[in-house]
Amino acid sequence: MVLSQNEQKLRHSAAHLAAHALKELFPDVKLTLGPATEHGFFYDFLPTTNLKESDLPAIEKRMLEIANRSLELTHEMIDKQQARELYKDNPFKLELIDGIADDKVGIARQGDFYDLCRGGHVKSTSQLKHVKLIGISGSYWRGDRDGQALQRISGVAFANAKELRSYERKVEEAKKYDHRKLGKELDLFSFHQEGVGFPFFHPHGKIVLNVLKSYLQRLLVDAGYLEVETPRMLSDELWRQSGHYDHYRDNMYFCSVEDKQYALRPMNCPGALLLYKERPRSYRDLPLRLAEFGHDHRFELSGVLHGLFRVRAFTQDDGHIFCAKQDIEQEVANAIALTYKVLKRFNFAQICVALSTKPENAMGDDALWQQATESLKKGLESAGIDYEINEGDGAFYGPKIEFAIKDSMDRLWQCSTIQLDFFQPINFDLWFINNKGEKERPVMIHRAIYGSFERFFGILLEHYKGALPFWLAPVQVRILTITDEQTAYAQQIETLLKNVSIRVERDVSSDPISGKIKSAQLKKIPWMLVIGNKEVDQQTVTLRFVNGKQQFGITHEQLVTLAKEAQNA
């Protein structure tokens, strides 16, 4: 999301504060870059000896000491040669200086600390007392894995103590409902050293994934999509043709088979392009909407892996729409409407939208980029959607609309995307015959709603704090008998619910009823059906909800009706 000017200044100044503290504590450290980010700030540096998480409290303490000195933050422009002299022992800063086109460069100062900078700061370090370091990780100079390995400290900065306390409360709540913790407690998924970064889904976790998929499949059929499946491993020549090799090869897995190079796919679009080329196309075939639940692989550094949020293998709910240029606006509007329908099904009430424009490493000429960007703007405006502009944050092959959802803990997650692509149809020489009998290039729209099933699953677990809604819960109903005398009746109720496609199980343990209730509550099962002799005699059940509320004397017919209503709620 776009930062306000005050947020930008505060976070950027906090990055300088972190660098200042590093220099005072570790004078030989070589500083590189430290920008403000969407969530806070970071600073990358090269230490003589790698720092650890245990070093963060001391760095944070020194930051607060510097803040309390109330040092004035100033900015000046100096000659390049003078700047080179300042940084004669820092090759990173020298490289940055050489890359600046002007004759002068900016230097920011606070006390005896200075840093290469374009400006934009608070007036005094006294405005930086509400900061917190949140992690240390590995990074690379300018994000290039072939470049110098560095370390990165990340943090957050706030304007006042109230905002910082609010953040700290949210962090504690997030820890309590961390999806990795919930995944273990609810027996949903696990990770193993035999496959670092590759999730193992347990039976109940797989049920949730299947429900997510089947829900979306039904919507896609109604929206005119045709589901396809393409290979997970394809020739590296295909990835060179699509441009992914040049722009994405550091994130790809390669192998050699019979003296030919192949790559596990990091995304699904080249397969869709090959399917389009399978036969000649007419305007009557368009729009052609292809859906694929593609399992993809991307190499991620072990230091950035994070449960289901950052993995090395994941499934995308991809859509690839091939259409004529005059249909772009309508197809984009349709994709937006579908995205909102899905996200609101999961009770994401607040959805923030941004339009990301041409990045530095883009393919294709500016004219097509401008045309693509304007087409997405029109699609958003025709749908009546308010949006922000994220300059330079598009995909290498086209601009994109990004949807960020706010969860129950007030955190934003970017999930859904709609990307417009004029370039892949050129790369793959795609055509269709228009209504004038002439050859015309189609436009390709890339669309994902969940984004990644794995990441979306993790978001949902934290959003619902483990208590998934009835329709999505892996076990919707657990039947609890007070004694073994009610077993036959419990089996009858189990069959009744299974016959209307409710996911139900019986607790067959020898625990007392209080223990059975506690077990079901810990597993966050939405409904418990308590059955004793009274219920058997009256041919009813007692319905107990996970929040402790109860309904007594529920007949079989009422139970089925309530279950169907909950399934569709």
Secondary structure elements and their pairing?
Layout: H1 5-25, E1 30-31, E2 41-46, H2 56-68, E3 73-79, H3 80-86, H4 91-98, E4 104-110, E5 113-116, E6 131-140, E7 149-157, H5 161-176, H6 179-185, E8 189-190, E9 200-201, H7 203-222, E10 226-227, E11 233-235, H8 236-242, H9 244-248, E12 253-257, E13 260-264, H10 269-276, E14 288-297, E15 313-323, H11 328-345, E16 351-356, H12 366-382, E17 388-390, E18 400-406, E19 412-421, H13 424-427, E20 432-433, E21 439-440, E22 443-448, H14 453-463, E23 477-481, H15 487-498, E24 504-507, H16 513-522, E25 527-531, H17 533-538, E26 540-545, E27 550-555, H18 556-568
Parallel strand pairs: 10-14, 16-17, 23-24, 23-25
Antiparallel strand pairs: 1-2, 2-7, 3-4, 4-5, 6-7, 8-9, 11-13, 12-13, 14-15, 15-22, 16-18, 18-19, 19-22, 20-21, 25-26, 26-27
How is this structure best summarized?
This protein is of the alpha+beta class and 569 residues long. The chain has 18 helices and 27 strands. The chain has 3 domains: 5-173, Threonyl-trna Synthetase, Chain A, domain 2 (Threonyl-tRNA Synthetase, Chain A, domain 2), CATH 3.30.980; 179-463, Bira Bifunctional Protein, Domain 2 (BirA Bifunctional Protein, domain 2); 477-568, 3-Layer(aba) Sandwich (Rossmann fold), CATH 3.40.50.
